[in-house]
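Bump. Still looking for WD repeat and FYVE domain-containing protein 1 C-alpha cells.
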Amino acid sequence: MAAEIHSRPQSSRPILLSKVEGHQDVVSAALLIPKEDGVITASEDRTIRVWLKRDSGQYWPSIYHTMSSPCSAMAYHHDSRRIFVGQDNGAIMEFHISEDFNKMNFVKTYPAHQNRVSAITFCLASEWVISTGHDKCISWMCTRSGSMLGRHYFTSWASCLQYDHETRHAFVGDYSGQITLLKLEQNTCSVITTLKGHEGSITSLWWDPVQRLLFSGASDHSIIMWDIGGRKGRTLLLQGHHDKVQAICYIQLTRQLVSCSADGGIAVWNMDISREEAPQWLESDSCQKCEQPFFWNIKQMWDTKTLGLRQHHCRKCGQAVCGKCSTKRSSYPIMGFEFQVRVCDSCFESIKDEDRTSLATFHEGKHNISHMSMDISRGLMVTCGSDRIVKIWDMTPVVGCSLATGFSSR
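Sorry for the wait, here they are.
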C-alpha cells in the first residue's frame, strides 16, 4: 500500500500490486500490455524487456533484447503488436512481438534524429511514426518505406509529444516552456499556434480528443489545461505538486486527471466541477493596493522620499502588491491552488468564509517517477524512474469507479 502525504484523511489510496525489478539503469518507459498481465519496459541499460505475470504472481522477463544504444522512449500498438523504441543516438527501431509475447522480431531502423529521442507516437491509419528529440525537431517518417517525410525545427529541445490522429495536429512541448501546435501534411507542416504559460520546461503532455483539451505538466511544478476546441487558450492552472510534473493522464469517463511528479507524488484531480481560471499577473510600478513604489520606480521613490518595495502578486486577483498588503496565505482549490499561496489581504477577507475543501487527492508513490502510463479500462497504472524499479498500481479505489463498466460510486 502506498502511504499518504496529504494533510486531510483520505478514504482510499492507490494499491501497489507488484514491483518489477531487474534493470541496471534508469527505466525510461513502461507500458501495460492491454488485456494481458504484462508490462513492456525500456531502459537506459540498453534493454527492452517484456515481463509476464507467472502463476506465482511474480513478473518474469519473457523477452530480453539488448539495443545498441540506451533506450529513451517507446510506443506500442497493441492491435498490430508493433513496438517502436527511441534511442540516445537518435534512431528509432521497430519490432514485431509474437502473439505469445515470447519473441520480438526486428523490422527496421528509422534515422529519425541526430540526438536523443524524447517521445514517439505511431499512427496506423497513415502509417507514420512521429517523434521528437533533443536535436530540437519533430520528424515524421513512413513506416512502409522507412523514409523521412518531414521535419520541423524548434529553438529548444523538443521534450514531449501528443498527436491527434483524426486532424493530424501535433502538440510539441519544449525546454523553453512553450507548446507548439502543428498541422502535419505528407511532406510539409504548418504552425497553427504556440501556447505560452509555464515558467519552466514542458515535461509531459496529454491530449483528450473528445473534449479537445490539452493538459501540460512542467518543471515549474504546475499543470495547465488548455481549451483547444473552444480556442480559449489557457483555462486552468493546477498547483499541488512539490516537484516537476513528469507524467499526466486524463480519464475522460470520470473527468479526473492523474499526475505524477519526480518526488514520487501521485495526484488525482477532480475536473468534473466548475473551476475558476487563475488570473494573469498584472504589472505595475507601484503597489496596486497602497500605491507605494516598487524598488525599480526611481522617480516615485525620489518624489515621495521613500524606499522601494519588493513586488509580489496575489494569486486570486492577479494584482501587483507589496508584502504589507499581502500578509496572508491561503489554499484556493477552485482556482487550482491546493497548497497555501500568497493572496492580498482584501482577497483573503473575501474568501475566508468560502468552502476551500481540496479538489484533489495526493498520494506517495515512494519512488522517483519519470514516466507513467495507465490502462484506463482496467484502472491500472504503471510508474517507473531513476531508481530502476517499475511499480504496478490498482487505481480504482482512487478514481472512484469501475472503469471497465463505467459504474461510478460517486
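Residues 276 and 330 are 16 Å apart (CA to CA).

Edit: fixed formatting.
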